[in-house]
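Morning!

As promised:
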Amino acid sequence: MADYASLTGLNVVTGFLGSGKTTLLQGLLRSPRLRDTAVLINEFGEVGLDHQLLQHVSETTLLLDNGCLCCAVRGDLQEALRDLLSQRSRGTIPYFSRVVIETSGLADPVPIAYTLLADPVIQHHFRLGNIVATVDAVSAGHTLDNYPESVKQIAVADRLILTKVDMADAQEVSSLCARLRRLNGSAPILQLAPGAAPDDGLLLDDIYRHEGKAREIDNWLRASGPDADGPLGHEHGSDVHSFTVRVDRPLDWTAFGIWLTMLLNRHGENILRVKGLLNVVDVATPVLINGVQHIVHPPSHLDVWPDDDRRSRLIFIVRGLDEAKIRASLDVFNALANPDVQARLSGRVPVDVGDR
Amino acid sequence: MCSLCGIIGGRDHWTDSAASPAAFSSRQQRHTWHRERQTRTRLLNAVLRPYGLSLKDWSGNAYILRGRTGQTAIINNLGELWAEAERLSRRDCDPLDPALLATLSQRGN
């Protein structure tokens, strides 16, 4: 497979109905640096988009036989991306170096990520960029209370964009920000002033681009807090919360892979995001992992440690999962890889594990 | 697919460090793909044993998962393993299960 970072980035702009997705996109596409962007939209809203590479897709989702809702292939997206690739290689459309998909207001963004990794053609040409979620500062409180779709959109996002702030009460905006922070501690909250040009780094800077990597890690570390393990916040009335697990002992990469694949297989529906800055045994620089529900993207790395702390840090955004259990489980799996233990692994110890 | 034995080659998976060489470029000791598979197989057998399952590396291309009754499944990578392990063992393979962790801890301490 080609270097993951060199693949064409696909960014997702999501957000509840009327939260300003198209307005944001309209502002972003005015940036000269984003001129070579192909845009896929699910629904034509009131705000018109005038862009030379604009295509409408119908948001059809194919649920796999054994999959949960997040492990669904977006058939429309699959077809649209293959079509874009084909046209790009034949030169029948202007060259594009990134794609943005604007979801419908009720859409779950996760099947988009799944589609990128599940399709054998697409996985060699596209990678996931940032998931940007717009949040209407006036009505978000009501929306979050009543529509679980909006909670999910916020929980899986890499950036949260507050819109209509000028129409909202300052106190309400402040409490909304606190609420968003509890749902997703690692996504920066940015305000979009009316008429102002949004920062094109929203689409250009992500964890896989050399230029944006350090800034992204700063966001993660800021979210993970300065000190001990623990919750980053808990949303009242919702099971969604985020926390950071710090591990003192370097992680064995093989044991970590076994643990995380096993955890995501059983609990992936409730692990909305996992991001990690890992100290891996025998690897001098930090290894970065980035997952959305059952999907984990290929690991990348930082050239240097961002600070003096050499502990591994894993940021989880989960629904109803116990932080202490996750930490204890990781410790046990990591201990299995200890060389002394590996020498004893041929021993057989009977055990009962719970039946279904 | 290998033209000699007909084994379908496994797809890259994020857990295979060889599939992401840049991420592991600062490795200090010599590391081989073969050794990683050996270690993975050994660790997986420790985790799978409580479920009555065992795993063998199949020519470096795939893994064979075997249940107590002799049922087998061919898997390409860890992304495919756990669903098959649950199917063959008819149990939930849950890394948060206290009984599993207690057993693994006996080996890990």
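Chain A touches chain B through 57 residues (CB under 8 Å).

Hope this helps with the figure draft.
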